[in-house]
Amino acid sequence: MSRSKTTASATAAAAAMTTPAQLERLGEHLRKLRLLKSSERLEAMLQHAAAHELPYAEFLEQVLGEEVAAKMSKNIAMRTAMARFPFVKPLETFDFDYQPSIDRKQLHSLASGHFIEHGDNVIVLGPPGVGKTHLAVSLGLKAIEAGYRVLFTTAAALIEKLTKAHAEGRLEDKLKIYTAPRLLIVDEIGYLPIDRQGANLFFQLISRRYERGPMILTSNQSFGAWGEVFGDRVIATAILDRLLHHAVTMNIRGNSYRLKDKLKAGLVRSHDDNSSQPGGEI
Ligand code: ADP
Ligand code: MG
């Protein structure tokens, strides 16, 4: 008997073995258990199993495996949406050759997520365009893949929301939103000046997450300039004291990726021969 004939007869046998009423009941069970992927593919999977004469355990493994994979990717997509990233770029899209000051080993070790388990902070410093936000998002995506909840915000948006909530007597609830996710990413510290009340509210958040919830922070300003960023040297020192207690700092010294093509064409000067560019000295 030819292979296609065998397959055809096995499929026919499978079809004959499964009655329409049985199929319907199976479908209903799967939907009640919210095994939606399997309920969609039930008939095809039964036919495939019969055609290939799959052992029972193998069939069950296939059904459950597909269901788990579908649930996991749905879960990752949901948590990615909840994280409110400005863009979704995995680490694999980052061109390390363009930014030689980044220690690849250190980054890959961060990507493994140990810093989250240990509750360490990651602080990424560097001038505009060197990939700080990209790396923060990429590490956030790795954390989501590892099963953690992540929230991304800019420092300006965070402080605006905390200030508004404070004025409306809802500060506690708002602080909870930023303390609940396992990993909080605060991007762009130092782009906009922060007033005294904003600095105080930011300090409150840092104190609550201190030694409990890891954070990734990015800034175009050196730590020495944070006194000016927060408008108060004492608060800035208190913030840095807590942040840096358990932290990994990455200093990116390089050219803006946004200027990549212009640099190539010789339209702008590279970071190496223009160290006085704004934000260039960390
Ligand atoms: P920063 O936050 O430091 O100002 P971004 O992370 O926003 O810089 O990077 C600017 C743009 O360039 C983004 O679209 C980012 O994805 C891209 N980019 C920056 N560095 C790299 C890199 N090394 N490889 C690939 N894309 C990069
Ligand atoms: Mg950025």
What distinguishing features does this structure have?
282 residues, alpha/beta, Rossmann fold, 2 domains, five-stranded parallel β-sheet, disordered C terminus, binds adenosine-5'-diphosphate, binds magnesium ion
What is the domain total for the residues?
2
What is the level-2 CATH architecture name of the largest domain? 3-Layer(aba) Sandwich
Largest sheet: 5 strands, parallel
Q: Give the helices and strands as they follow along the chain.
A: HHHHHHEHEHHEHEHHEH
Q: Within the largest sheet, what's the order of strands?
A: 2-3-4-1-5
Number of strands: 5
User: Which structural category do the helix and sheet elements fall into?
Assistant: alpha/beta
The radius of gyration over CA amounts to: 26 Å
The CATH class label of the largest domain is Alpha Beta
Mean pLDDT: 89
- Any idea what the shape is? elongated
Count, helices: 13
User: What ligand molecules are bound, each kind once?
Assistant: adenosine-5'-diphosphate, magnesium ion
Distance between the termini: 76 Å
Please bin the fraction of helical residues.
Answer: 55-70%
Descriptive overview:
By secondary structure, this protein is an alpha/beta fold. The protein has two domains: 3-77, no CATH class; 84-273, P-loop containing nucleotide triphosphate hydrolases (Rossmann fold), CATH 3.40.50. The protein has 13 helices and five strands. It has a five-stranded parallel β-sheet with strand order 2-3-4-1-5. Helix 8 (155-167) packs antiparallel against helix 9. The N and C termini lie far apart (76 Å). Adenosine-5'-diphosphate is lined by residues 89, 94-95, 98-99, 126, 128-134, 257-258.
